[in-house]
Fold this sequence. Notes:
Chorismate Mutase Domain, subunit A; flat; 81% helix; 3 helices; mainly alpha
Amino acid sequence: MNELNKLREQIDKIDSQIVKLLCERFDTVKKVAEYKKAHTIEILQKSRETEILNKITENIDSQEYLEYMLEIYKKVLETSKSLQGGINADK
């Protein structure tokens, strides 16, 4: 196997882990949505969103990737809000 194929195989393994973790995250997001629905709490919690993005900024090892990581996490948060909105719409 050439070096490119080895690197691609490594990426595939990492992607598999990311998908599993995102599914776990979305399962938890659904539970949060159910809690918010039961307690009539708004989906959008801007302070929580800011807190998450700040943690990313604090915990990233390479500043080189910070901009990209924040971009990805903003999309994850947007998707999470969409998922919560769908659950809260099912009243």
